[in-house]
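#structure-requests
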Amino acid sequence: MTSSTDLSAHMPADVPSGSLAAIRASFQTARATLDAFLGDESNLEAVGQFAALCEGALTSGGKLMACGNGGSMCDAMHFAEEWTGRFRGNRSALPAIAFSDPSQLTCIANDFGYDQVFARSVEAYGRPGDVLVCMSTSGGSPNAILAVQKAKEMGIKTVALLGKGGGQMKDLADLSIVVPHATTSDRIQEIHIKVLHIAIEAVERSLFPDNYAS
């Protein structure tokens, strides 16, 4: 077993001041993005509407679906597992799915093109009364746009978590939440995951208040 003393021999003695400055600047940018989001009351209202849509679907026998590309797919998977597993405390499992199965995605991409990977999944799994959550830091991902369009055709409510002004999806989804201030995907996704977590918490507080009893 390697001791802590042995590990310390491989650690740099000092962190260059330039690196510390860059790290501090990154945290400050992240804080400025969150402050900008919180500074607009309509963003908080939109998160409340998002939670209400999720609660409405779950209490009426519907399910939640989520999709995105790259890091946004990771956020979609994170969103889904919080419902089927445990968020704050034990409670019954709730139906949520992320479109992230490699075999299905690559099959659809191979047969119909990558732009169709999420729309085909919506067609396969979606039903009226469900909610589709699409994440795109640009608002211009063709496969996410087509997924929203397919969902609307099927009578499925759509929520878009976006950045960089919202792009085409901003006016297409039933509810759009656009991260302000940030110009890079990482800062935008940091707000997206906060929105997802806080919406889940709001639904849990309503449906499972004992999990939040003091």
